């Protein structure tokens, strides 16, 4: 559900209490998770994960290998659930679609001049349409941070809305690149604008800069989703990317999402981890529960 333009101007813009936000995020990170719940958290983490390859050296063979792993993340355990999606560049969408045919794994594609977003709108929209035409289920774009930081919110909203229209039936994830926004207040406002413009999901980071997801940022974005939902009735998804490397970290983020948005968000339709480096740590924890022995990381699959 999107707020009809220009009603987004009526969205509340107010300061964020950084001290209270960080204290709340820290408190949630201390919640103890019992062994049975840890097992469920590991399963959920895998099911909510987007495996990603976004390198200039990507090949069709590499994408096929990643898709094989997406179907069965742990080749030693046929009960291991598949991940949510595989994310690739637009030129490799058709390869991923073919490799994942018959599975539940979605094909996502970065588009719109990822990761900078610095090209003409016409080129960015063409990038999106091409990826969707090749079969992408989901499109990840980057918000125009230059326009946002310059206070040109009209352009920010108009471009995201145009990207949503170009997506057709595909879901749109808008990356805020939170490390470049400067404050929690800016992150909250960018979240509200992206949702009002039509984003199905808001996402922390491209993973191409050092600063990315942190618990306070995740909490800030989750609270914005909750507030936007209270205002409009919309249920917007959240994707956390960048810097999440361990199963323990992932579990803390699941607590934040659960406590802020509720159990209905603990599902790949509404929540994702964009952190391929996380998968092997989760697999190692699952194997430890099954065998009582820690697996050497050298024995785990290499993406």
What does this structure look like?
The structure is a single chain. The protein is α/β, with parallel strands linked by helices and 303 residues long. It has one domain: Aldolase class I (TIM Barrel, Alpha-Beta Barrel), CATH 3.20.20. The chain is built from 11 helices and 8 strands. Helix 5 (121-133) links the parallel strand 3 (106-110) and strand 4. The longest helix has 18 residues, at 215-232. 49% of the residues are buried.
**Element pattern in H and E:** HHEHEHEHEHHEHEHEHEH
Q: What name goes with the CATH superfamily?
A: Aldolase class I
- Alpha carbon gyration radius: 19 Å
Number of domains: 1
Please identify the top-level CATH class.
Answer: Alpha Beta
Query: Low-confidence runs (pLDDT<50, min 5 residues)?
Result: none
Largest sheet strand order: 1-2-3-4-5-6-7-8
Largest sheet: 8 strands, parallel
Question: Summarize this, please?
Answer:
The protein is an alpha/beta fold and 303 residues long. Helix content is 45%, strand content 11%. Strands 1-2-3-4-5-6-7-8 form an 8-stranded parallel sheet.
């Amino acid at each position: 559900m999107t707020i009809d333009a220009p009603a987004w101007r009526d969205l509340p813009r107010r300061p964020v209490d950084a001290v209270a936000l960080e204290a709340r995020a820290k408190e949630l990170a201390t919640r103890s998770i019992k062994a049975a719940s840890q097992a469920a958290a590991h399963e959920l983490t895998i099911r909510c994960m987007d495996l990603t390859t976004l390198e200039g050296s990507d090949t069709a063979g590499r994408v096929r290998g990643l898709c094989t792993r997406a179907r069965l993340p742990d080749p030693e355990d046929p009960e291991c659930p598949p991940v949510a999606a595989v994310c690739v560049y637009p030129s490799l969408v058709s390869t991923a679609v073919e490799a994942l045919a018959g599975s539940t794994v979605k094909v996502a594609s970065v588009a719109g001049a990822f990761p900078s977003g610095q090209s003409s709108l016409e080129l960015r929209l063409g990038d999106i349409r091409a990826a969707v035409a090749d079969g992408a289920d989901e499109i990840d774009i980057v918000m125009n941070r230059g326009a946002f930081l310059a206070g040109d919110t009209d352009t920010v909203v108009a471009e995201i809305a145009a990207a949503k229209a170009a997506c057709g039936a595909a879901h749109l994830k808008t990356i805020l690149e939170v490390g470049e926004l400067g404050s929690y207040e800016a992150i909250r406002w960018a979240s509200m604008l992206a949702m009002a413009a039509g984003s199905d999901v808001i996402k922390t980071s491209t993973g191409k800069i050092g600063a990315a997801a942190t618990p306070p940022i995740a909490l800030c974005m989750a609270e914005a989703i909750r507030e936007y939902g209270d205002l409009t009735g919309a249920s917007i998804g959240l994707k956390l990317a960048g810097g999440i490397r361990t199963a323990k970290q992932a579990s803390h983020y699941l607590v934040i999402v659960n406590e802020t948005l509720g159990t209905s968000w603990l599902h790949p339709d509404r929540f994702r981890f964009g952190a391929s480096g996380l998968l092997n740590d989760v697999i190692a924890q699952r194997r430890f529960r099954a065998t009582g022995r820690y697996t050497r990381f050298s024995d785990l699959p290499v993406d």
